[in-house]
Design a protein that fits this description.
The protein is built from 5 helices and 7 strands. With 166 residues, the chain is α/β, with parallel strands linked by helices. The radius of gyration is 20 Å and the shape is globular.
């Protein structure tokens, strides 16, 4: 129930998004990702609405569809990496780059990794949202920005007048 205080996740936005997520879940299973929990279909007791089972996949490899697509649903893919360079290569090997997350106890290492990610926003150690910071993606996630000064500039029209005499 989206109105219940104990609810932590609601439905996805539309039938089209629900269908996209279901296809990605089915594809991940077909490509050999290990289903840890969740999976296709709606959660038990939620026959109406566009509810998706919170789903976790393990043993996901970088070439799998689920590793490359923006799911925009409650689906988590776990991938192993050998070192920081490998982790960055995996993270950047996608046509998208909306947001990334880096967590760790070494602040310098976390910041170094964040700087190397090709994403429009990078959250460090679960920091809170800042609506004064610009938000938008890289690559096929789009180049527009929302929030902050950069978001305001999206609504401005710039005019150049050339050849005018003083």
């Amino acid at each position: 129930d989206p109105a219940a205080a104990t609810t932590t996740i609601g439905p996805v936005v539309s039938e089209m998004q629900f269908d996209k997520i279901q296809t990605l879940i089915d594809t991940a299973i077909a490509e050999g990702a290990e289903l840890v929990c969740g999976g296709p279909g709606k959660p038990e007791g939620l026959a109406t609405g566009y509810y998706v089972k919170p789903t976790i996949f393990a043993n996901v490899s970088p070439e799998m569809t689920i590793a490359k697509e923006e799911v925009f649903g409650p689906v988590l893919s776990l991938m192993a990496y050998q070192n920081d360079d490998d982790a960055i290569a995996i993270a950047n090997d996608t046509p998208y780059g909306l947001a990334g997350y880096v967590s760790g106890s070494d602040a310098d290492r976390v910041l170094s990794m964040a700087r190397r990610l090709r994403a429009g926003a990078v959250n460090l150690n679960n920091s809170p949202a800042d609506f004064n910071a610009p938000f938008g993606g890289y690559k096929q996630s789009g180049n527009g920005r929302e929030w902050g000064e950069f978001g305001f500039e999206e609504f401005l029209e710039v005019k150049a007048v050339l050849g005018a005499n003083d």
